[in-house]
């Protein structure tokens, strides 16, 4: 018997939460209809009546409209008694809902429903720098971070947090992976701190599992998502190519190579920094191929005259050694220039 009463009370509470908003709206509309019927001369229109009911229940009381008959005044007292408590309950429910949503968002328990966003897997100092770079480079793209932290690591307007294991399909779908512009997988920071010197395979192994989970979803939904991964050991890169990882963040070996080169060619690290960051104004951009460009020489010198330097076709950075070769139809050309120049170039090519 006691259990049945508890169930009934539970269902009543749930019903109250569901009908509260429509009940408040209906109450306001009927209350406005009542005063409009009682004093049609004072309240010239139904909209005016609604306005008066809202100001009365909100205890604002501008005084521009007020009942003049005894019936209207009694009706106003009735509204005070029944309506103010109801509105207070409604406002409290709205505030509580906002609090719950904010708590869920900060705790990473809400699904991300946007699209054309960038997913960053794993929180680390590198991830933080990546967030700053994205926010600085693109003023519209949202960022979704996947990690197991108790709450969002940082607070930004266009940053969203999904808490969970990135190797789990549900977590990836909660970040709306199918609609994402791309994914960057950073090496697990905890694994780096504990196993990098003992067993570096464990660090890249977790990254490989995340990449495999993404590939599984791609194959299941028949979609293609650009994936960039941080690989600690350069020898492991071949393994990642089997799970359709498109690009790799510079490994420790690459960074060490740049450091050694700086001893023999002073200033080379400044060049790397300028290529990899937008803080100097110039950056690397992809540009579509013009129909008039038959050879790399055609493209190289025309772009140079416009203030851009053609540096690569996909991963091939030996353009200066093949200027007289024909540009293939599927070429993916990259130039170095500033934002103003790339904007002009893109518009010229589209025309």
Automatic annotation (TrEMBL):
Transmembrane segments: 20-38, 75-95
GO (cellular component) term, any one: plasma membrane
Originating organism: Neobacillus rhizophilus
RCK N-terminal domain segment(s): 115-250
Designated name of the protein: NAD-binding protein
GO process terms (BP): potassium ion transport
Primary location class: membrane
Membrane-topology annotation of the record: Multi-pass membrane protein
């Amino acid at each position: 018997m006691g259990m049945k009463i508890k169930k009934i009370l539970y269902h009543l509470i749930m019903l109250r939460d569901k009908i509260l908003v429509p009940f408040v709206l209906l109450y306001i509309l009927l209350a406005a209809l009542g005063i409009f019927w009682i004093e049609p001369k004072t309240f010239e229109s139904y909209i005016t009546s609604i306005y008066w009911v809202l100001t009365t229940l909100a205890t604002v009381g501008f005084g521009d409209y007020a009942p003049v008959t005894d019936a209207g005044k009694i009706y106003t007292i009735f509204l005070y008694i029944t309506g103010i408590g109801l509105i207070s309950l409604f406002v409290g429910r709205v505030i509580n809902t906002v609090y719950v949503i904010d708590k869920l968002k900060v705790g990473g328990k809400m699904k991300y429903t946007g699209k054309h966003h960038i997913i960053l897997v794993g929180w680390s100092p590198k991830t933080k720098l990546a967030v700053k770079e994205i926010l600085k480079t693109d003023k519209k793209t949202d960022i979704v971070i996947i990690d197991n932290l108790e709450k969002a690591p940082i607070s930004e307007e266009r940053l969203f947090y999904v808490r969970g294991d990135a190797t789990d399909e549900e977590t990836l779908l909660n970040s709306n992976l199918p609609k994402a512009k791309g994914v960057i997988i950073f090496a697990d920071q905890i694994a780096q701190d504990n196993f990098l010197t003992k067993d570096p395979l464990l660090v890249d192994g977790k990254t490989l599992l995340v990449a495999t989970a993404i590939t599984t979803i791609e194959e299941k939904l028949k979609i293609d998502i650009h994936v960039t991964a941080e690989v600690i050991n350069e020898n492991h890169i071949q393994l990642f190519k089997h799970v359709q990882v498109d690009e790799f963040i510079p490994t420790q070996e690459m960074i060490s190579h740049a450091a050694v080169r700086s001893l023999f060619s002073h200033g080379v690290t400044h060049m790397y920094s300028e290529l990899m960051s937008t803080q100097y104004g110039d950056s690397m951009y992809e540009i579509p191929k013009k129909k008039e460009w038959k050879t790399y020489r055609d493209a190289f010198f025309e772009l140079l005259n416009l203030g851009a330097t053609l540096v690569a076709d996909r991963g091939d950075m030996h353009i200066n050694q093949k200027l007289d070769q024909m540009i293939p139809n599927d070429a993916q050309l990259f130039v170095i220039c500033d934002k103003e120049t790339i904007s002009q170039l893109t518009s010229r090519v589209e025309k």
